[in-house]
Amino acid sequence: MEMLTVRRSSVRLFLDFLAPSTLRSCSRHYASxxxxxxxxxxxxxxxxxxxxxxxxxxxxxxxxxxxxxxxTLIYTxxxxxxxxxxxxxxxxMKHMYEQEVGHLNTFNALIAxxxxxxxxxxxxxxxxxxxxxxxxxxxGREAAMACTEAVETEIGTHYNEQVREIxxxxxxxxxxxxxxxxxxxxxxxxxxxxxxxxLEHLDHAVENDSKEAKPYDPLVNVIRLGCRVAxxxxxxx
Amino acid sequence: MGAVILAxxxxxxxxxxxxxxxxxxxxxxxxxxxxxxxxxxxKQELPFRAAPTRSCRLYHSQFHPRAPTHEYTNSQxxxxxxxxxxxxxxxxxxxxxxxxxxxxxFLDVSVQLLxxxxxxxxxxxxxxxxxLLRAKVEENQFESLRSVSSVEAKTKLLILERLKMNQDIxxxxxxxxxxxxxxxxxxxxxxxxxxxxxxxxTLAGDSAVDTAWYTNRLGVAAVYASAELVMTSQKxxxxxAAIEAFVQRRFEDRTALAEKITGFKQYLGFVxxxxxGLGRSWGLxx
Lengths: 237, 286
What we know:
Number of helices of chain B: 11
EC number (chain A): 1.14.99.60
Domain Ubiquinone biosynthesis protein COQ9 HTH (chain B): 76-101
Number of strands of chain A: 0
Oligomer: heterodimer
GO molecular function (chain A): 3-demethoxyubiquinol 3-hydroxylase activity; 3-demethoxyubiquinone 3-hydroxylase (NADH) activity; metal ion binding
Number of strands of chain B: 0
Enzyme class (chain A): oxidoreductase
Cofactor (chain A): Fe cation
Order of helices and strands of chain A: HHHHHHHHH
Strand content of chain B: under 5%
Helix content of chain A: over 70%
């Protein structure tokens, strides 16, 4: 028995992560005091995410990155054509584009930080978004704004669902006398800020006659359906 | 045998005093660190996971570290870790597992705890070396890694470091490769290769968030697997410089290929923009 104990401790350096969770001491790699910054160590216990919740965050970050990539490329393709015929829209298009680039950079950083796999469809979404932006831009200002309206409606709804989901975890944590970790709290506020900015883009689109696009309903519905399909695919692939 | 109880699949065993102590200490430590205490099993049940699970990369943070790729029970871990010492002399065989079980104070028949037999030993070897590599970097025991700044140089150093861990068992590795190439074992073998390449790139500080995420992992896996194959064809304890040179050449090939692809993309871009310019000059509203 003595020998067994000695053997176990001698290989602990690299075999701890292989032991089952019941017998694994809270080592550096898994749920340790070192994982928790000193500032949070004295307060409520932290709410630990289960596998389903981690999968949800995984797919949420992947979809958000893909969505922001698409939005950035749509504006990139639309801007030259819209601005050529409507120079007064240059500041608005520039403002919306810069915000989208900021969102994309935010999600790129989150993807890298949380070691999340980006979507396999990345190159396909790049081509699809560029084509969508270019084609709606060629159809005129109203169609370009209708495209923005459709995309931002779907993206805004999707962010709302994500915020609601994470807030439900927070409510569950409070019921259990625990709290969400600072990273998740920061993530919720980031999602909220980005959602509000996306809905601001939606308002700009409506103000700039998106409803006047010909044909409005088929165009918006097709784009929204495409967005929903892209979201579903990116969640999994 | 003493307090060590042999737990067979399908039978209920009693938790050994070691396991009770480990569970108790784990429980108190977890409570101190604000984490949920682990699931308490009934005294008659031993937590038994028959097979390692396929790796799945989920959301990871300092507050929610990633779960281990392969989970083994305490008995399995003890037998397998003891068996590692017999690999250089006996290879990845049932004999090495039996000797490991004996060393750990188990009966010879306890190798039945490992449903995949020799393949479990191979997986354990791969996963434990990966863990050792990670521990080396995270605990700042890797001096040469701090002297380089580029991700590519770090990746190369990490690949070489991982290959060095195979030096003692290189002469037995062909048998392991044969076992890993069996159709039923291919998914887990590839999963382990992906986990290694992913860990190497993460430790090297790779922050690709686009298609490069996939190509980088594919590239590292290809370089590592081919270097491993070259190692098996060498004489036992041959000079490692040949492997280093081989890895260096593979990295040069990667760079050359990347440059060719970039050049081709630029060419397509120029052709496209020229075509658009021509179209506009002909009056097309592009």
